[in-house]
Structure formats: structure tokens, C-alpha cells
Design a protein that fits this description.
The protein has helices spanning 4-17, 23-32, 66-72, 82-86, 109-118, 122-125, 127-134, 136-151, and strands at residues 36-37, 43-44, 47-48, 52-53, 56-59, 62-65, 89-94, 97-102. By secondary structure, it is α+β, with helices and mostly antiparallel strands. The strands form four sheets. It has a two-stranded antiparallel sheet with strand order 1-2.
């Protein structure tokens, strides 16, 4: 899901992101818009053939983010939407708390295998976006809790 601010940003930065996108992603954005409303009435990024994000590009066999590529190249000042930065974690706000859930997807299987082989947990790999979303203190508490759970 995108925030209202991120929806506006995507509209503004699309011309700068477009050169880094695949043709099918460009067509998806031109047909659907820079963001769409999904079945849960959330604003989200458009998809290519109802599968991967329209803002992805391929580097070898790895999907990468064209928004982040434009940011890395200094074309824009916005790195990427928070929900994209957290992927494959999803955050959902409820009354009194925010749930952070792992979304197990086939597209991530290579990363999961690599993480398992190198002993890197999802929360460690996603340290930067988790701190962006939740703050340094909560991330530190998450690390402490994970360490305690791994002792058992």
C-alpha cells in the first residue's frame, strides 16, 4: 500500500523513473496510472499482467526497482515507497498496534535460499526499511526479542 503522499510523488517522478523501466512496465503505468486502487481499496503500484510491479526491471535474473535506480543515479530524491522498501514484509495498522507480516512468495525464493545459506534473517536484511518504518528503538527491541527466541 502507498500513502497519499507517495501517490503524489509517483505522479511527479514517473518521467524520471521511466527510462529505467521495462517496456511492459511503462505500458502498464501508461494504461493503469502511476498507482491504482486494489481490491482492499488501498492505493498500490500497478502490476504487469497482474504479477510483478510495473516499476521493476531485470538485472540478470534479479528483479530490481526502477524507482530506487533513479534515486541511486541522482535523478530523484525519493528512494522508493516504504511498502516497497519493506517487501516482502507487509505492515497493517490495527486499533492500538501495527502488525508486520512476512509474505512468502515464489519470487523471493532465491533470496530466501541465500539468506538461509548465509545465516541472514529477514529482519536483518531489512534493517534499514524497518528502522525507516518503526524507528531505531523498536528495531533494537526486535533484535533483542529475536535473539531470545533463537536461544530456545
Amino acid at each position: 500500500p502507498l500513502t497519499e503522499e507517495e501517490v503524489k510523488i509517483l505522479e511527479e517522478i514517473f518521467p524520471f523513473v521511466k527510462p529505467f523501466m521495462r517496456n511492459e512496465g511503462i505500458r502498464a503505468v501508461e494504461k493503469q496510472g502511476t498507482s491504482i486502487t486494489d481490491f482492499e481499496n488501498d492505493r498500490v503500484t500497478p502490476l504487469i499482467n497482474n504479477e510483478e510491479c510495473a516499476y521493476t526491471y531485470l538485472e540478470g535474473q534479479v528483479y530490481k526497482c526502477a524507482i530506487e535506480k533513479a534515486w541511486e543515479e541522482g535523478k530523484i530524491s525519493f528512494r522508493k515507497p516504504l511498502s516497497c522498501h519493506l517487501f516482502p514484509l507487509r505492515m497493517k495498522k490495527y486499533s492500538g498496534f501495527t502488525a508486520v507480516n512476512y509474505q512468502q512468495l515464489a519470487i523471493c525464493s532465491g533470496a530466501v535460499r541465500k539468506g538461509n545459506a548465509e545465516g541472514i534473517h529477514v529482519y536483518e536484511f531489512l534493517k534499514e526499511p524497518l528502522i525507516r518504518a518503526l524507528g531505531e528503538n523498536i528495531y533494537s527491541e526486535l533484535c533483542l526479542a529475536a535473539n531470545e527466541l533463537m536461544k530456545k
